[in-house]
TrEMBL record:
Catalysed reaction equations from the record: 5-amino-1-(5-phospho-D-ribosyl)imidazole-4-carboxylate + H(+) = 5-amino-1-(5-phospho-beta-D-ribosyl)imidazole + CO2
Protein name: Phosphoribosylaminoimidazole carboxylase
Family according to the record: In the C-terminal section; belongs to the AIR carboxylase family. Class I subfamily.
Species: Sphagnurus paluster
UniProt-listed Enzyme Commission number(s): 4.1.1.21
Assigned keywords, A-Z: ATP-binding, Decarboxylase, Lyase, Nucleotide-binding, Purine biosynthesis
EC category name: lyase
ATP-grasp domain span: 119-307
Residue range from the parent sequence: 1 to 402 of 585
Pathway linked to the protein: Purine metabolism; IMP biosynthesis via de novo pathway; 5-amino-1-(5-phospho-D-ribosyl)imidazole-4-carboxylate from 5-amino-1-(5-phospho-D-ribosyl)imidazole (carboxylase route): step 1/1
Any one GO MF annotation of this record: ATP binding
Amino acid sequence: MTDKVVGILGVCGGQLGRMLAASASLLNVKVVILDVGTSAPAKQVLAPISTDLAHIDGSFADPEKIRELAGKVDVLTVEIEHVDVKTLEDVQGIIRNTPLAIHPSPFTIHTIQDKFRQKEHLLSQGSPVSHFLPVDSTEESVRAVAVQIGLPLMLKSRTLAYDGRGNFALRELSQIPEAISALGDRPLYAEKWVSFVKEIAVMVVRTIDGQVESYPAVETVHKDNICHLVFAPLRSRDATLAQRARAVAETAVKTFTGAGVFGVEMFLMDNGDLYINEIAPRPHNSGHYTIEACETSQYENHLRAILNLPLGSTALKVPSTVMLNLIGYSSSVEEITATTRVALTVPGASTHLYGKSECRKGRKMGHITVVADSDAQLRARLRPLLQSLPGSSADEVDRYAQ
Ligand code: ATP
Ligand code: MG
Ligand code: MG
């Protein structure tokens, strides 16, 4: 397919790198993975190509290790945006057969990895974002912002956030000390509370020339700030919604540079308005469903884009699909196993386990994608899976699987 060697900066046991590596193996794309340990999830699915191209044991945060990886590959990509951009810029000059390409570009990663900088960028480019303000990590500053923006508000870490772990929902002024002790050691900003009716996401793939193709719009459902379910295609009485969401996502992704897949998270308001919540410059949880449900998965299209190969179709190939995240409930993997056992009995269900060494409460351990011929069939298939989740209420099951 190509002689180019792809380097993946792994996230320390991440699933996105694992699914990217699995996709690369089908295309015979040579990959070198930088991740901690010899049995990181991505390394489990892709043996080293040769001794010269052995995987690297180290952290994405270690400049020396990034340099080592850069010396072995033609194209560098990331499964996490929280990387040291200065090091990426430095290694851009390292030459193997051809100059090293970094996708997405260091500019894109720099802009996106700081959520406040990302929001300022989107605002300046005319993309719709809800009201946000800078804030210092002090009680006085948060109080001043609360007066300006109103309560509730979402206090957010500018950097290193994932799965809602940098967010604090501030409902009353009396919670400010608690918020500061939870997030105060990080640079912060504040967002006006968004009373959305739905959360929507669109995966967009961007070529080296800056052309963009979007995947179908999907509905994402979060539980405790973590992505819980993803339904595709998006259902709405508003016939323009899915197209509008795709247009908002495509326009936003065009403002960045470098190739690859981007995940655009959006809020849908009661009046039909859309706001961008955040953008991830990489394959994304809301795009896992594309493996079974689209003509070309987000992972394969990410590889095609960064390798300058023709993109594959982003179209759905099934009438209805849902992705259920398997989130650790405790330090035991027992609860996950119970759900995967049920999945084995559900037609149209595909189980993905990520090979993580330890289970922890709130940790993404795997996911299940279900495909079906209709929404009704999909919900019937989803029902036993939701019922098998620890702590799931009858109400919740009915809400998503009626
Ligand atoms: P991830 O990267 O895993 O998607 P994150 O840590 O970057 O998560 P966000 O996407 O900022 O966190 O927020 C997580 C969830 O919190 C959102 O999907 C949404 O449900 C809720 N949320 C975020 N911002 C707001 C807001 N301003 N108002 C209301 N709810 C919000
Ligand atoms: Mg995020
Ligand atoms: Mg998010």
